[in-house]
Design a protein that fits this description.
This protein is α/β, with parallel strands linked by helices and 327 residues long. The protein contains 13 helices and 10 strands.
């Protein structure tokens, strides 16, 4: 199914961040930030094209000085606004501001079952404790919270503990993210990423446990189709460029945050032109099997797996996902 506009935009308002995480795709990126009136014009453009969701990421969204103003304006335009944060700056006041601005939910990153693992991965002492305090503050303010956990070598054995702790602090959903190979994630891949067979073991266990988990589990990895999981949405394989788009601080659009290929600028080109005429997006939407994907019975569901990971590791859109465990 080809949509007339993205269902969701993931919007980096600023690449500024108070952390230096081991896997970060954007730590070395810099883009000029638009003046507030130009940012609000982009909101108008999204609303005019009936984009349903805007998720603010980064960078750290709370370092962007106009976060609440932009979020409130978008919410008033009928866009459902959400956010992903490292949690460091979500005190009681900011939690209340999230409620007032109309955030539907706020996500907090928790990547370890202990402070030792989480703080090491996030390169910020005290960040584990602050993340759970952020969840408590959001709950007190009446804001729905979620948790994002990037699975890697040091936390895969303890992912259930992360889920249980997140649920205890009010998180409704825990996103168990697959490891991406962009930015620092590529630099530190050998130290952090799981080999394919261990990804299989993790997904087999997590899918089996899903019905008993104390919070909803969400996965964003198309290769779980290899285990018989069917696509729940309107598209197969990676959703970037099909259901979602990424916006950078200067208004440039990319397929997703992990694919740093500019498709055009929302202020000068407009969303409709970018979404319907981009040759890059067309390549992503029309992938064809290569290598071991040829003849694979799961290809119709996974379409080669994560396009961002394939591109980062091989330089090709159509190459098999390097996480794929099929021989």
């Amino acid at each position: 199914m080809k949509l007339s506009a993205p269902l969701t935009v993931n919007w980096t308002l600023s690449y500024d961040c108070n952390f230096s995480c081991s896997h970060c795709y954007s730590r070395g990126l810099r883009k000029n930030e638009l003046p507030l009136p130009e940012v609000l014009k982009i909101v108008d453009e999204l609303a005019a094209n009936r984009v349903a969701y805007a998720n603010f990421g980064g960078g750290e969204p709370f370092l962007y000085p106009h976060l609440f103003e932009v979020a409130k304006y978008a919410a008033q335009k009928g866009i459902k606004v959400t956010m992903n944060s490292n949690g460091w700056l979500i005190g009681p006041e900011n939690a209340s501001k999230c409620k007032d601005a109309g955030f539907r939910s706020v996500g907090v990153s928790i990547d370890g079952a202990t402070a030792e693992v989480h703080d090491w991965f996030r390169n910020r002492a005290g960040s584990f404790e602050r993340a759970f305090t952020a969840l408590d503050n959001l709950r007190s303010a009446g804001v729905e919270s979620t948790v994002s956990a990037v699975i890697f070598k040091k936390n895969v054995a303890d992912y259930k503990t992360i889920v249980k702790m997140a649920a205890d602090h009010g998180a409704s959903t825990v996103y168990l993210h697959n490891f991406k190979c962009s930015g620092k994630g590529m630099e530190n891949r050998a130290e952090l990423d799981l080999p394919p067979d261990e990804w299989k073991e993790f997904y087999e266990d997590a899918l089996k446990w899903r019905a008993e988990a104390p919070a909803k589990l969400a996965f964003d990895d198309p290769i779980i189709a290899l285990l018989g999981e069917k696509s729940e949405g309107a598209v197969k394989g990676s959703t970037c460029g099909k259901l979602s788009l990424h916006i950078e601080p200067d208004g440039d659009a990319t397929p997703c945050g992990f694919i740093p290929l500019s498709l055009g600028n929302l202020l000068t080109d407009g969303l409709k032109k970018i979404w319907t005429e981009s040759e890059v997006l067309e390549k992503m939407r029309s992938k064809s099997p290569e290598g071991k994907c040829v003849g694979c019975s799961a290809y119709g569901e996974c379409l080669g797996g994560c396009t961002a990971r394939s591109l980062a590791v091989t330089g090709k859109f159509n190459s098999p996902d390097p996480h794929c465990w099929r021989k």
